[in-house]
Design a protein that fits this description.
β1 and β2 form a beta hairpin. This protein is of the alpha/beta class and about 220 residues long. It has seven helices and ten strands. α2 packs across α3. The protein is globular and about 50 Å long. The chain has a single domain, classed as Rossmann fold. A six-stranded parallel β-sheet has the order 3-9-8-5-7-6, sandwiched between helices. The protein has a four-stranded mixed β-sheet with strand order 1-2-4-10. Pfam families: AAA_33.
Length: about 220
């Protein structure tokens, strides 16, 4: 199964999903593509491989499994704000609330992302979906390189995401979760109606089973 034009490849076994569809739309001589890997009961691809030099964003609700997926499949190429938070938490006094040093964690996260981009690395970036400026930043960088930006979007229910937060022992407020839900809902609606987010050259939709089936997200030389 090949994403022509965008340099993205999905390899492994699987059967067509009931809702699987591919939409194309001409833009600047690149054909953006959608691959829907939901509703396969875990029988989807084991590998997603993108062209070397491309950039990948992983988005979804808090608790949807973004960090888990990246730690398992990104093979050291992931840039995840959760990793930065955990490093800071290990150094901070236990009595100090995270809210106090959250701005410093975010600065450190984006500084690390900037360094990776300036070095020309292919990266897989954790994004909560509410920060559209992050995708815009990555889209500009991809255009500057003459490469593509790809979005991997996890589609899970609010109940599943909340359960994921409880499992990791770290939740978000009701207000923050509602903001995330609206942002991710807009992304899903846009994709499902054939409008890929601005700057994205491909979108891959995953449910929990499809995300669990993935073992590798990486990059290889374009053919």
């Amino acid at each position: 199964m090949t994403f022509h034009h965008t340099g993205a490849y999905a390899t492994g076994t699987g059967i067509p999903a009931q809702r699987a569809r591919a939409r194309t739309r001409r833009r600047h001589s690149v054909t953006p593509l959608l691959r829907d890997l939901r509703e396969r009961g875990g029988r989807g691809p084991r590998t997603l491989a993108f062209a070397l030099g491309d950039l990948v964003v992983v988005s979804g609700l808090p608790g949807s499994g973004k960090s888990t997926l990246m730690r398992r499949a990104a093979d050291g190429l992931g840039i995840d704000s959760q990793d930065v938070r955990e490093r800071w938490e290990a150094r901070m006094p236990r009595f100090l609330p995270y809210a106090v040093y959250r701005p410093l964690v975010r600065i450190a996260h984006y500084a690390g992302l900037r360094r990776a981009l300036r070095a020309g690395h292919s990266v897989i970036v954790h994004d909560c979906g509410t920060q559209s400026w992050v995708r815009n930043w990555l889209a500009r960088e991809a255009r500057r390189r003459g490469r593509a930006l790809h979005l991997i979007l996890l589609d899970v229910t609010s109940a599943t995401a909340r359960a994921g937060q409880r499992e990791r022992g770290r939740g978000v407020s009701g207000y923050a979760f509602a903001r995330h839900r609206r942002a991710v809902g807009r992304l899903l609606h846009s994709v499902e109606t054939g409008r890929l987010p601005r700057g994205c050259d491909s979108v891959t939709l995953l449910d929990r089973d499809a995300a669990g089936a993935l073992r590798t997200i990486g990059f290889r030389d374009a053919d």
